[in-house]
Each structure stands twice: as C-alpha cells, then as structure tokens.
Amino acid sequence: MSDLLTWSNGDIAKKSGPTVQTSVAPGAIWRIRTNLALLILACLLPGILLSAWFIVSDYRQHKAQAIERAISVARAAAAGLDREIVSVTAGLRVLATTSSLQADDLADFYTQAQSALPFQNISSYVLIDEAGRQQVNTLVAWGAPLPLVGGPPQLKRIFEQGEPVLTDVFVGPVTGKPILALGVPVRRDGRVRYSLSAGIFPDRFASVLTAQNLPKDWISSVLDSQGNIVARTHEMDRFVGHPAVPDLIRMSRQVPDGVLETVTLEGIPVITAFSRSRVSDWCVAVGIPQAQITDELKRSLITLLVISTLTFALALWMAWWLAMNRVIQPTQRLLQRMRAIAQGETPDMADGERVPHEFALLEQGFADMGERLREREREREAKLAAEAANRAKTSFLSRMSHELRTPLNAVLGFTQVLMLNQREPLSPQQREMVQHIDHAGRHLLDMIGDVLDVSRIESGQMHIHATELDVATLVQSCHEMMAPQAQAAGLHFNVSMQGETGLVRADPTRLKQVLLNLLSNAIKYNRPDGSITLSATRHGPNVRFAVSDTGLGMGPEQLQHLFEPFNRLGRGSSAIPGAGIGLVICKQLLELMGSTLHVHSAPQQGSEFVFELPSITP
Asked: Under 8 Å CB-to-CB from 531, ≥6 apart: which residues?
C-alpha cells in the first residue's frame, strides 16, 4: 500500500515511505462531546426563544386587554357619574318649581325640602339669594342662624348664566367635611331670584366606582374640573380634595379619553385610563398597577427558565450517553484500524454488530473522495454555465424582440395590402380571416414591445428623456386615440380637466405609453355600458393624473400580486387579451420619471390608478 492515512493522538499523517506528521488545525480541536452539547443547545435554543416570544406576546396582549378594560370601566363610570348628575339636577328642577318657593313661603319650602332629602340621596338643600346669602339650609333648623358664606364662588354663575352649575369639591361650612354642590336657577318673572343647590358627599360618587367591580389592586378616582380628587376606591378619606398627579390633570384637559403611565399619590406606578364626563368638566380615572402585569411576566419567565434548564440537562445527559456508546467508542475502534493501516498492516474488517454502518463506510469513502471532487468540479462548471445562460437571457430577449419585429411588421403590412386592395377585393370571409391575422399580429407586436421594455428596464438600458409637456395636449391626444376603442366596447369615455394644469416635466413617449396602457386596461376589464374617466388636476405643486373605470375591480388578495410580471390575477383563462406585464411597465416607467403609481380598487366597483408629476409654472 503506497499511500496511507494515519490518525494518531490527534495528529494526521500521510505516509508514503517515511511517516510525515502533520498537526491538526486549531479549528478541529473540539471534541465530539462538545459539538453534541452545542448541537443540543442549538436545537433547544429556537424553542426557548419561541417560548419567550410567546410569553412576551401574551404579556403584551394581556396588557392591551387590561388597558382596554380600564378604558371601558372609565367610560362606564363616567356614564354612571353623568346619570347621577342628571338625576340630582332633575330633582332640583322639580323642587325649584314648587308653589311655596314661588310664593316666597320659605318655611313651607323648608319642610318640603326636608321631606325630599331621603329620596334624593343627598346631604342637604341650600337656597341662596342674589346677594349670596343663604335663605334655607336643611342642615340647620328653621329659624336658626345660617352661615355667613353663601356657598362656593362657582355657584354665582347660576345668576350670571342661568344654567345649572356643578362645583368642585370644597369643605362645607356647616359639616366641616369635603362636599360638593350642584345648583339650578330658581326663576320668577323671567329673572333668576334664587339658586337651589344640593350638597352631595363624595361617598355618592364613590359608589359609582364601587359598582364597576374593579380588581382589588386597581385604583379608580373621580376628578373635578380642577383635577382635585372627589372620590377614590383606595384611601379615599386621605386623598379627597387633594390634586391628582399633574400629568393626568394636564392630559385629561386636552382629550376626552386617553391612556398614560403615571405614579399614584401613594407612589405606585400605574397605567392610567381616563374618560371625561359628557355633562360636566369632571373625569374618571382607572389605574392598573404595573406590578400586577409585570409579576405575571416574571412568573412565566421563571417557569420557562426552570423548564428549559431541566430540559437542557436531560438532553445533555442523553447526548453524553449516546456519544459514549454510539460515537466515541466506534471512533476509537476506527482509529485503531487506521493506525494499523498506517503501519502497513491489513486489519480485519470490523465486526458489523459492533461497528456502526457509517464507520464501516469510511474506508470506502477515502477511495470515493477523488471521484466526488471531480463530480463537484463538474457541478461548479455547470453552475457557472447556468449563470452565463441566465445573463444571456436578457440579451437574447432584447435581440430577439428586434428580430421578431421585422417579419411581423411585414406580415401586418401584407394584411393591410390585402384589406386595401380595390382591384381584387377580399370576400367577407377572407376579410374576416385577414382581420383576425391583423389583430393577432398587432397583439403579438404589442407583447414583443412590452417584453423589450421589460428587458431594457431590467438591464438598465431604458433611458428617460424628460422635456416640458403640455398636460391638456397630452390628455386630448390620449382621448382621441382611445375614444374609438371605448365606443366600440360600448363604454362612456369622460375627460376631466380641473384647474390650470399647465406643463409637466416627463418623457412624452413614455408618459403617453403609461396613460394609453391604463386606458386600455380600463376598457378591457370594464362592464357593458360602463364608463372610464381620464382626469388631470392641479394638486399642490404637482399635476395628478387619474384613470378610473366602473369595471370588474380587484380584491385585497389580487392587489397584493398586481405588479408581479405575467400574473393576470386569475384572469388568464378569460377571453380578455393580455400578458400581465403592462402594469409592471407602467409602474417601472413612472418610477424612472420620479413618480409612483397608486391603486384604489374594490370588487365589482371598478378601479382607479393615480400618479403625480411635478408641475412647471409657465
């Protein structure tokens, strides 16, 4: 045996006569066991990352659901607050029209007001005259001295505006407790003679919050027009009358509903949703402790970490066992055989029951290695040839398009000669056949032109020659060219020119090609007795071109594949001619001219193609 491969103690030697030792490359010093451990990690890592992604996604979804619920609760509580305000206002309006009050019989009115208190769930009724003095206060016995202060200054607006007024929270002069007042005007002879107010303790509005059945950790508050706390689900006695956090006050004054991250007065980070009352300047805020949401994320991540660690440890143990019994020991036996070969011995074939089949094939693999290398070289050459053929495709399409046009133009010329021959006119049947040839030839000529355009654009050989172009002349020219086709198809062709369109800078030939292609599609894919519209309007510094129709239209799925070459969007089997590259060319030509083609379409409602070009002021 002239050449032998020898593996010994991590070294590889090629023996031809004397043994030559060659050190193993530094990148090959990792043991199989290490590689198997890394393989286990590589297999587990995607699952771990995917699980983490699901946990984070679930956390975000849970957070979004909690915020959505908080917004719903805030709106429901605001609606409940409005109902309470409207209810008290209605009771006050009824009491303000009693005959005793109209007759200034305040003693009798005092008795009526006392009897109405249990039905209104309020603390007191207070009647104030135009001078701001209290005339009746159900918290004070009739005839007893009344407080010198009539009420909060906000109640004066009742006499100024003649409308109900809801005050902010204040300390009642009689009770010495936080209270608020809701007042209505008492009119007589067209004048506001008194203001009748109901004193309402914050507990009544706190019941609105309690009725929402919030989780125990959620914090909800009712804020007055100044941002002071009127009612609260947590530590209400401590914070009633105190201002809420500034960020919440500022944002609640800007928008009717919203969400923001704040810190409560107790120092708890929360996500706050708020909704403003529709009948007052008050609002309801609901805070979700961020710890409640993040704790669930932490528990899920810890669970994932524990499960991943146990799974990795079990998989590593199994990999170790398999490596020792299925890989390491057979490899050691194979190395012993290779040492024997290096020493010039002819070892016996390995026992098939003890040596894996793969290791038994390694010896044969050395013999096959040369052939495999030659095969790979052939594959590489075939790949290079395929790449060269692919590069030649574009050149072939470009050249063949030109070569096909010459005989095709001759065919079309002969069809024209046959149809115009007056000396030997064609029979009706012959004329119909020649017309079919002419139509098919022109269709093929258009397809060749489109393929040539695509080839030029893909190869970067399409050049745009931009000049100043009159928009009105262009639109009129397109209308004159396409009107006969529209009339033959039984369609109404409309042209719309709004404003002074002036001039645009574009390639005249390519811009007309785009418009004619869009108009042709609008005619082909329209419905009987439908219409198409070509419009050009001034839109800021640009001129907007639009081609719309009332035809078949396209759905969202079709719009996603609209600009794929040779994709006719499921209409390839229809009788409508086309190759599916016209819109691709339109889109690419407009991009070369610095514009973008936009599409608006709906099934059975038609389509609209819109693009804009810069206007040039004459």
From this structure: 491, 492, 493, 494, 549, 550
Residues 452 and 401: beta-carbon distance below 8 Å? yes
Q: Two tokens at 217?
A: 């950790």
Residue 122 CB contacts under 8 Å (≥ 6 apart), including other chains: 88, 198, 199, 200, 204
Contacts of 224 (CB under 8 A, 6+ apart): 167, 168, 169, 180, 230, 281, 282
Q: Are 553 and 426 in contact (CB under 8 A)?
A: no
| Other beta carbons less than 10 A from residue 126's beta carbon | 29
Query: Residue 548: its pLDDT value, please?
Result: 93
Residues forming a β-bridge with 602: 606
Nearest Cα residue to 95 out of 130, 125, 53: 125
3 vs 367: CA distance, rounded Å: 12
Distance CA 109, CA 102 (A): 10
User: What would the pLDDT profile of 352-390 be if each residue is shown by its tens digit?
Assistant: 455 556 655 665 554 455 466 568 878 888 888 866 765
Residue 12 pLDDT > 60: no
Indicate the helix (H) or strand (E) that contains 460. none
Which pLDDT does position 553 carry in this prediction?
A: 84
Asked if 177 and 159 touch (Cβ cutoff 8 Å), the reply is: no
Token digits of residue 456? 């030029």
Burial profile 560-577: b = 16 or more Cβ within 10 angstroms, e = fewer = eebeeeebbbeeeeeeee
Beta bridge partners of 258: 274
- The model's pLDDT over 298-335, given as tens digits with 9 standing for 90+, comes to 777 788 778 877 887 787 777 777 777 767 766 776 66
One DSSP character per residue, 373-425 reads HHHHHHHHHHHHHHHHHHHHHHHHHHHHHHHHHHHHHHHHHHHHHHHH-SSSP
Secondary structure in 3-state letters for 16-78: CCCEEEECCCHHHCCCHHHHHHHHHHHHHHHHHHHHHHHHHHHHHHHHHHHHHHHHHHHHHHH
Q: What is the enclosing helix (H) or strand (E) of 296?
A: helix 290-322
